[in-house]
Amino acid sequence: MQKGKKDIRTEYERDWDRLIFSSAFRRLQNKTQVFPLPEEVFVHNRLTHSLEVASVGRSLGKIIGKKIASLDEIKNDDNARPFYRNSLKSVIASACLAHDLGNPAFGHSGEEAISKYFKKRDTEKEEDITFKEQFSKEEWKDLTTFEGNANALRILTLQQKGRVKGGFRLTYSTLVSILKYPCESTASNKNILHRKKYGYFKIDEEVFLDIAKELNLVKDDVDTGISYKRHPFVFLVEAADDISYNIIDYEDAHRLGILSYKEVKNSFLKIIETNSNDNIKRVKKQAKSLKEDPNESIAYLRAKAINTLIYKTSDAFWENREAILRGNYEKSLIDSIVELESVMKKIEKVSIKKIYNAKKVVQLEIAGFRIMSALVEDFVTSALTVKESRDKEQNKILGLLPKQFSFEESNSPYEKVMHIIDFIAGVTDLYALKLYRKLRGIEL
């Protein structure tokens, strides 16, 4: 861009572009969503999932943005009105694009695998007690419960060696929208929605507090650590994700023969039937006309079901906006839709039983668990061994770290480990497998 020439994009559109062109986003194409990536049938990976979530999120942002812009206290505000009318959709879409950046290879088993090394060392053995004493209570909690949501914030804001200052340099609005669990690890509580997990690592506390201050997050009254209530935008990002994976996982399961055409069709029709703007007889007729290609018929119903859920969740947001603004709303938007409670519970139940416990899915999780936990053990053991005591193998293992993930010997044990985790959590399924094989001597 020529000096002095104004960017035609808004700063929120620029957030989207920076994410789309980032290497972290491209790597999502080789990270498992749910199913292993078969050659003969197309199913979703983390990248295609993120793009679809962003599409849903943009629609939600547009609907809610227009409603907010029409409020008396907003429509006469020349700063707020244009943002809600024109830019909220870009903020939500960008946050949706970024929401899975912190997830490691091999799905959710990758998260648990990263923490396995530290959990194994959480014993009363003398050597493990000495090992654990290298870390504070908060640091140890981070390491024994690695969290992809916290890692997403770290990826977006981390200053890596040899990289542009400020990480992705996204707007505060986009960053706050991914803070699904705005608390530190010691404040997490599985029984409370916004503290079910945690949203930042101790090493990134300053960044998190800066965002919380800038966006005026509501402080949470807890004794176990730092915690805030969710920003309202988070509910829209969460809804976009919930809508996408609930519906798309069903569609993928049909493509792979795990669920029957009838089973998926009936569930989608039950969702569509609640939409008064759709002619259900015409929808059924169209689906039937496409039945020669069952995948196309299901794709049509999937689009209709997603459309219904977009309007239902946006209505739920609007009806509960006062509680959401106060930070007192403790339900996801998709769980707030009374007329869909039965069918969504059924989809969840079937997904757990038939999809997430399908043989191929479980096999992938087990393999991923072993691969990722082994990589963490090799690299962390090498990093935490005093430099003078490292053997030749450990030095060569650390030599495999890309420059941007290297650490200083003067760094604390926690800082060293976080550099290792930055590397391992970022690799793709394929790269993790190849690295594991090389380190185990399976492949030369």
UniProtKB/TrEMBL annotation:
<dbReference type="InterPro" id="IPR026875">
    <property type="entry name" value="PHydrolase_assoc_dom"/>
</dbReference>
<dbReference type="InterPro" id="IPR050135">
    <property type="entry name" value="dGTPase-like"/>
</dbReference>
<dbReference type="InterPro" id="IPR006674">
    <property type="entry name" value="HD_domain"/>
</dbReference>
<dbReference type="InterPro" id="IPR006261">
    <property type="entry name" value="dGTPase"/>
</dbReference>
<protein>
    <submittedName>
        <fullName>DNTP triphosphohydrolase</fullName>
    </submittedName>
</protein>
<keyword id="KW-0378">Hydrolase</keyword>
<dbReference type="Pfam" id="PF01966">
    <property type="entry name" value="HD"/>
</dbReference>
<dbReference type="InterPro" id="IPR003607">
    <property type="entry name" value="HD/PDEase_dom"/>
</dbReference>
<dbReference type="InterPro" id="IPR023293">
    <property type="entry name" value="dGTP_triP_hydro_central_sf"/>
</dbReference>
<feature type="domain" description="HD">
    <location>
        <begin position="46"/>
        <end position="246"/>
    </location>
</feature>
<dbReference type="InterPro" id="IPR027432">
    <property type="entry name" value="dGTP_triphosphohydrolase_C"/>
</dbReference>
<dbReference type="GO" id="GO:0008832">
    <property type="term" value="F:dGTPase activity"/>
</dbReference>
<dbReference type="GO" id="GO:0006203">
    <property type="term" value="P:dGTP catabolic process"/>
</dbReference>
<dbReference type="Pfam" id="PF13286">
    <property type="entry name" value="HD_assoc"/>
</dbReference>
